[in-house]
């Protein structure tokens, strides 16, 4: 794993060595793609445009948020900002790396929550826009525009997380793949006909389930808060 982590640090160095204007871009991307924006920005906007799409964004975002926490408990995953010190790499050789206000994230890093939750929750929007493009035009290029935008967004979010030293590249890749798979799998199963009370109950069940799992892991001697 050390070789994989070191390769990730090299990529972060290369990204930070880019043009100064890119720094503001990467930081704005990583801030805009914060998972909480799914609930405060994307869900209200999607719900206003289409009721079913909005509910799907909320539902998938909720499940993805919960699953990301659980996966991190089992996969753990170092954070680049801390790993360069804990591994001794920072003392062995000079590293051309800078710290940002969003660099010092704590907790396990695999998979990337920004990539996984954003990618999963935006899948219903991708499906809706692709369907709309298919109805409005026969051009195969136009039909691929929503998917292309989705891929570019995920790539930008992933690179921004590497840039600020919040994640290693393999954690970004696992987050992107998990998010796309989750969005694709859950989008047709969204309970759009359910009342708001159902979603409150589901959120409470997920919360209690995670607390119970947390307690079981600690009882088993697994320190998930390392």
UniProtKB/TrEMBL annotation:
Coiled-coil residue spans: none
Source domain of life: Eukaryota
UniProt-listed Enzyme Commission number(s): 3.1.3.9
Pathway of action: Carbohydrate biosynthesis; gluconeogenesis
EC category: hydrolase
Membrane topology note: Multi-pass membrane protein
Transmembrane segments: 53-75, 144-166, 172-190, 197-222
Keywords carried by this UniProt record: Endoplasmic reticulum, Gluconeogenesis, Hydrolase, Membrane, Transmembrane, Transmembrane helix
Annotated localization: Endoplasmic reticulum membrane
Entry-linked InterPro entries: PAP2/HPO (IPR000326), PAP2/HPO_sf (IPR036938)
Domain Phosphatidic acid phosphatase type 2/haloperoxidase: 53-187
UniProt GO cellular component terms: endoplasmic reticulum membrane
Principal subcellular localization: endoplasmic reticulum
An annotated GO BP: gluconeogenesis
GO molecular function: glucose-6-phosphatase activity
Family stated for the protein in its record: Belongs to the glucose-6-phosphatase family.
Protein name, UniProt field: Glucose-6-phosphatase 3
Species whose genome carries this gene: Baryphthengus martii
